[in-house]
């Protein structure tokens, strides 16, 4: 499989150089997926996907362009790349646009993070999705309008080749199962709730019954929700959506926003950006991690790095291009697995110590301003008083500055999220502005 | 590098890539080989080109090409879907047999020869992009950059992009219908970073921008539109320097004409897509012919607006598109249907079946969602509010279809105090419940504007281009974010 991928990528580089490119980087990838959904006892949609694509970054005398196509026949690639190179010649030169040198590339990427499970091609999706949906329906004894189970499995593989000798291979498999329910509320609303589990290896999936039980609990917990009065106070953000908060902090670390001066972190290197006990690590080498990778977008070998240490911002996310422009050492182009270290206390213990707290389990829309760090998000969740759930919450917003939010960070629970590339536990913040009635 | 508008009869474009009538018939036969009720083949060849100016240089270009066919087989309400990126007969038939697996019998069906159906043209192009050189595009983005710097000395950084895309789609059905549509698109974006003095004399930086899009050629960029693109981008960024956060809470919200139609899209539009209603999981399920809004409120979803980003000459199932009246004088009149939901309800499809690409199955989607004008003068609407906010521009929105809670993010606006516009405000999320918000629209202005912004709608992992439009509207109460 990977030898034909490598042939494609090498062919793209070879054609581009023959047609006048000074340097080139090519990526070729392919993937096979099956997604199945079943609603209330009947298959709703069954999709089988097989795709391939190629893309190439072309450097022509300090000029730069990127191109992609899924028509990888040589007779189609030649005119495609010829037009690409002709177009590139009309651009303006940028001395920073060259391939990383062997020194900048560092040593060859190695390491096995066990991202492939051979079972990917052997799944019985019909039985699997039926079990998922029926377990969910069976877990809810009232107010259920409709339940949909969904399962997917697939594998993908990609090769990166540069004209100065780098060859990287990245292959993964993925399995997922989950369900979404629509509940019947007494006022005619049909609130929905979902949960899922995803993993690189099938054996790491959370059991179907456990996922179904979570969907049921969320569905029943969503009934009768509404906004509370506006208030300021503690917020516990559930682990599966903590990535929204972490992302608001990490987005402005990117090289492009630093360089273009639209980042609230451009003058914060080495400064306090969060409470002193907050730490954030980018770990590309987590075994079976959803974001694990041996090399980054520049082809540079990856390594674990601390982005925020004891509340201080220690580095930006600089690929080779923006590192050169900012005259700094490159760190890494983009993140892999973001990790917030877990603590010893459970969500239940944390909630029971608080007079009141809004446990946020979903965001609805909202946005943030990377230039200023201001954010404003819609939320759903539950009001807790002394550890007891007292009211389901919806149609409220939270707003403020990411620096105030992170400055008010109190603690992380003991439940790191494993179903994605942001491995954060549930996070507790103080003095958050809620707006409602 | 864009795909030119095909000159020949419908079907010739893909025939020249090897997809003859005989191949089509063999693929349709394979799709129905397991006894499916119906099927569609969707062939697509798409291309796009963009140039980007950043840091004072037009130093990046990109192009993209994609080619393939998606095949959907239906058996009752069940859907099997597969696609092929290889247009050879064997690969196409293999994809069709995979999709056919959703059906479980083996009744062979005969398929007629495909016959072309002629279409209207809602996006005639005067100056096609394939005639516009990269050098000419470089000049355009360079001029916009210089105009942005010239507009205000506080402008420190400018990023500009110009892109165009075109796709040829061919849809073939087992009843013999063959349609072919050429779909152009252009989009331009100007983004600025500005630097000014804050309230305490400190240096404040802000970043914002403006983007516009339509189904058109180079003629889209007349002098007036180019000026508006740059001026709006710069002014909306400078606006942020003096703007603050409103106080949080529930209050009357006046929505300015144009992009405010994001409220229609989120609060109402998605809930009226018929797939959610067929499954009875939309908050608007079982509300047909009910009074759901003030009688000033009429909402249409229109695929036929001239040159609009959301327009289509035919939908992605091969059905005629139209102007669909969703709400007429407050009464729910129609959902947006694809064929699956139309069959379910025993109705004609509304031409709303759309998809992102050949890799995706179609579903009911919005096109251009527009609220018709009402009786009120926009100034009088603002004057009617004692204390509230006036929203001017937006970045994004979201909705829960069943719970009905929706939100949209206001980028720029003003406080309203005693019937007058007050201090500038920015960056707040606004949240409400769809049917409640619809019922709370109590004044509709006479100043309809169809927004020119490059909006993209996401649903179930698929993105499609859409447009939206609205007159000035008052919503008596929504929950506004912000900080005390």
Structural class of chain B: alpha+beta
Q: Calculate Rg of chain A over CA atoms.
A: 24 Å
What's the shape of chain B?
globular
Distance between the termini of chain A: 58 Å
Biggest interface, chains and residues, is:
A-B, 79 and 84 residues
Strand content of chain A: 35-45%
Summarize the SSE layout with pairings.
The complex is a heterodimer of chains A (437) and B (484).
Chain A: H1 2-18, E1 23-39, E2 42-60, E3 63-69, H2 74-89, H3 102-105, H4 125-138, E4 144-162, E5 167-183, E6 192-199, H5 208-221, E7 231-237, H6 242-250, H7 255-259, E8 280-282, E9 305-309, E10 312-313, H8 320-325, E11 338-339, H9 347-352, E12 356-369, E13 374-385, E14 388-401, H10 402-407, E15 409-412, E16 422-423, E17 427-435
Parallel strand pairs in A: 7-12, 11-16
Antiparallel strand pairs in A: 1-2, 1-4, 2-3, 4-5, 5-6, 7-17, 8-9, 8-11, 9-10, 12-13, 13-14, 14-17, 15-17
Helix pairs in contact in A: 1-2, 4-5
Chain B: H1 12-15, H2 21-31, E1 38-54, E2 57-75, E3 78-84, H3 89-100, E4 115-116, H4 134-151, E5 155-172, E6 177-197, E7 203-214, H5 223-242, E8 249-255, H6 262-269, H7 274-278, E9 299-302, E10 323-328, E11 331-332, H8 339-345, E12 353-354, E13 363-364, E14 368-371, H9 378-383, E15 387-399, E16 405-417, E17 420-433, H10 434-439, E18 441-444, E19 449-450, E20 456-459, E21 462-465, E22 467-470, E23 473-480
Parallel strand pairs in B: 4-6, 8-15, 14-22
Antiparallel strand pairs in B: 1-2, 1-5, 2-3, 5-6, 6-7, 8-23, 9-10, 9-14, 10-11, 12-13, 15-16, 16-17, 17-23, 18-23, 19-22, 20-21
Helix pairs in contact in B: 2-3, 4-5
């Amino acid at each position: 499989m990977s030898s034909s991928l490598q042939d494609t990528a090498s062919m793209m580089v070879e054609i581009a150089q023959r047609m006048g490119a000074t340097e080139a980087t090519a990526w070729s990838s392919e993937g096979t997926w099956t997604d199945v959904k079943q609603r209330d006892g009947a298959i709703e949609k069954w999709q089988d996907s097989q795709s391939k694509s190629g893309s190439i970054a072309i450097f022509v005398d300090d000029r730069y362009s990127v191109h992609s196509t899924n028509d990888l026949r040589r007779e189609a690639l030649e005119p495609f790349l010829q037009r690409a190179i002709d177009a590139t010649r009309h651009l303006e030169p940028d001395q920073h646009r060259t391939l990383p040198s062997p020194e900048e590339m560092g040593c060859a990427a190695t390491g096995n993070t066990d991202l492939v499970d051979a079972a990917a091609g052997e799944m019985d999706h019909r039985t699997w999705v039926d079990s998922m949906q029926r377990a969910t329906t069976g877990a809810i004894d009232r107010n259920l309008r409709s339940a949909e189970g969904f399962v997917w499995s697939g594998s993908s593989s990609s090769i990166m080749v540069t004209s100065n000798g780098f060859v990287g291979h990245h292959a993964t498999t993925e399995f997922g199962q989950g369900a979404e329910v629509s509940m019947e509320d007494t006022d005619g609303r049909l609130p929905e709730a979902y949960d899922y589990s995803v993993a690189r290896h099938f054996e790491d999936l959370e059991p179907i019954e456990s996922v179904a039980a979570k969907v049921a609990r969320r569905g029943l917990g969503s009934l009768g929700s509404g906004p509370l009065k506006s208030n300021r106070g503690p917020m516990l953000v559930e682990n599966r959506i903590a990535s929204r908060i972490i992302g608001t902090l990490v987005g402005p670390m990117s090289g492009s926003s630093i360089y273009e001066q639209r980042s609230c972190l451009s003058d914060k290197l080495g400064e306090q950006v969060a409470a002193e006990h907050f730490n954030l690590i980018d770990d590309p080498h987590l075994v079976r991690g959803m974001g694990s990778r041996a090399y980054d977008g520049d082809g540079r070998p990856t390594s674990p790095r601390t982005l925020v240490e004891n509340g201080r911002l220690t580095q930006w996310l600089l690929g080779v291009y923006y590192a050169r422009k900012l005259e700094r050492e490159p760190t890494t182009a983009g993140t892999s697995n973001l990790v917030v270290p877990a603590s010893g206390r459970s969500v239940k213990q944390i909630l029971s110590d608080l007079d009141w707290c809004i446990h946020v389990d979903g965001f609805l829309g909202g946005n943030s301003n990377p230039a200023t760090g201001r954010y404003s998000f819609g939320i759903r969740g539950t009001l807790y008083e002394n550890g007891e759930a007292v009211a389901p919450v919806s149609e409220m917003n939270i707003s403020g500055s990411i620096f105030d939010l992170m400055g008010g960070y109190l603690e992380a629970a003991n439940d790191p999220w494993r179903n994605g590339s942001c491995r954060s536990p549930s996070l507790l913040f103080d003095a958050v502005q809620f707006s409602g009635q | 590098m864009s795909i030119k508008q095909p000159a020949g009869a419908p079907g010739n474009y893909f025939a020249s890539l090897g997809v003859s009538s005989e191949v089509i018939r063999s693929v349709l036969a394979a799709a129905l080989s397991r006894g499916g009720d119906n099927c569609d083949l969707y062939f697509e060849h798409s291309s796009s080109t963009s140039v980007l100016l950043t840091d004072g240089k037009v130093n990046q270009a990109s192009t993209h090409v994609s080619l393939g066919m998606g095949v959907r087989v239906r058996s009752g309400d069940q859907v099997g879907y597969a696609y092929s990126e290889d247009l050879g007969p064997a690969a196409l038939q293999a994809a069709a047999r995979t999709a056919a697996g959703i059906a479980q019998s083996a009744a062979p069906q005969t398929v007629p020869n495909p016959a072309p159906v002629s279409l209207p043209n809602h996006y005639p192009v005067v100056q096609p992009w394939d005639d516009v050189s990269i050098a000419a595009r470089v000049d355009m983005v360079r001029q916009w950059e210089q105009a942005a710097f010239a507009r205000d000395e506080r402008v420190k950084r400018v990023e500009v992009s110009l892109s165009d895309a075109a796709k040829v789609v061919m849809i073939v059905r087992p009843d013999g219908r063959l349609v072919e549509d050429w779909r152009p698109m252009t989009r331009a974006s100007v983004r600025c970073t500005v630097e000014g003095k804050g309230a305490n004399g400190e240096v404040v930086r802000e970043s914002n921008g403006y983007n516009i899009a339509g189904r058109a050629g180079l003629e889209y960029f007349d002098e007036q539109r180019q000026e508006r693109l740059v001026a709006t981008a710069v002014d909306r960024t400078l606006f942020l320097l003096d703007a603050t956060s409103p106080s949080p809470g529930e209050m009357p919200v006046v929505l300015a004409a144009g992009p405010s139609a994001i409220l229609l899209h989120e609060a109402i539009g998605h809930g009226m897509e018929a797939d959610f209603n067929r499954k009875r999981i939309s908050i608007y399920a079982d509300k047909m012919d009910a009074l759901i809004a003030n009688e000033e409120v009429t909402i249409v979803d229109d695929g036929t607006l001239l040159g609009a980003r959301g327009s289509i000459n035919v939908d992605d199932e091969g059905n005629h598109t139209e102007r669909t009246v969703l709400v007429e004088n407050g009464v729910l009149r129609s959902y947006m249907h694809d064929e699956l939901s139309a069959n379910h309800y025993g109705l004609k499809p509304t031409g709303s079946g759309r998809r992102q690409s050949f890799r995706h199955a179609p579903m009911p989607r919005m096109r251009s969602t527009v609220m018709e004008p009402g009786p009120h003068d926009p100034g009088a609407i603002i004057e009617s509010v004692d204390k509230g906010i006036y929203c001017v521009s937006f970045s994004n929105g979201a909705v829960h279809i069943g719970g009905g809670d929706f939100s949209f993010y206001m980028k720029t606006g003003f406080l309203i105090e005693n019937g007058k516009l007050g201090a500038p405000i920015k960056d707040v999320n606004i949240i409400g419940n769809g049917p409640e918000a619809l019922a709370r629209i109590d004044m509709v202005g006479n100043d309809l504007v169809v927004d020119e912004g490059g909006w993209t709608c996401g649903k179930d992992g698929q993105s499609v281009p859409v447009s939206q439009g609205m007159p000035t509207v008052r919503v008596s109460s929504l929950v506004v974010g912000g900080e005390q």
